[in-house]
Design a protein that fits this description.
The protein has helices at 2-12, 29-38, 40-53, 58-80, 88-105, 108-119, 149-171, 179-206, 211-229. It has 230 residues and is mostly helical.
């Protein structure tokens, strides 16, 4: 985990830190595979999602990773078709902030707040709400019911930001590149980052070093905020 943090820090000072600058070499599968590892925004978000997934139930973890990969492919295909979104870079940086917050503080209180807002319920009646009946304020993030409102909010957010990452990649592919091989390379690298983060997270928890996940989350959020407001 410490090595990952060091690598991420070094990448932050690279002139080609962003995966979406258009300055990196492009081509087929190989170039697409390398691309996510050279982009700070993509690298931090993808690894961070894997780290976050390691602290969730296995069902939610694989749902989150699967949803991200599927919607990233959808976004990339839209990008290849010429679909654009003026605030795609902003959305990508916001995803860094959310990954940072999720790792630093957990998703429990965030989702509870959203549920209270959506349903208009106050703190005294929270325990009577259907989606919260199995939870209390101190429950683990792994306690979400299979398709609770909290789960839907999380997966919908992941889908939205995954499509933005994919759209950015797809829309910036050069005409002379093997576009679909490039997409396959990016998806393969993204899946590898997810799984690597997941395994690192499990290792950190078993080594009683879960605090490193919060440190990673804090650094990720700070990088996202710096890139967003710089």
């Amino acid at each position: 985990m410490k090595k990952i943090l060091v690598v991420a820090g070094l990448i932050a000072f690279s002139q080609a830190a962003s995966a979406h600058t258009g300055l990196l070499p492009t081509g087929g599968f190989g170039h697409g595979f390398v691309h996510p590892f050279l982009g700070l925004d993509h690298f931090l978000a993808m690894l961070g999602l894997g780290l976050w997934a390691s602290s969730q139930s296995r069902l939610l973890a694989w749902q989150a990773i699967g949803v991200f990969l599927i919607f990233m492919i959808v976004g990339a295909l839209f990008g290849l078709s010429g679909v654009g979104f003026a605030y795609v870079e902003t959305a990508i940086l916001v995803s860094l902030l959310l990954v940072g917050v999720a790792l630093s503080f957990g998703t429990t209180q965030i989702v509870l707040t959203l549920q209270r807002t959506l349903w208009g319920i106050n703190g005294n009646s929270v325990r009577n709400a259907p989606a919260l009946r199995q939870r209390d304020a101190g429950a683990s993030d792994t306690a979400f019911p299979r398709w609770s409102v909290g789960t839907i909010i999380i997966l919908a957010s992941i889908a939205a930001f995954a499509s933005m990452h994919g759209l950015a990649h797809g829309s910036e592919m050069p005409l002379d590149a093997s576009a679909y091989a490039y997409v396959v390379g990016i998806i393969a690298a993204t899946a590898l980052l997810h799984v690597s983060g997941f395994m690192l997270g499990l290792f950190a928890q078993r080594a009683n070093a879960a605090a490193l996940l919060r440190i990673y989350g804090t650094l990720t959020g700070m990088v996202g905020a710096w890139l967003l407001f710089a």
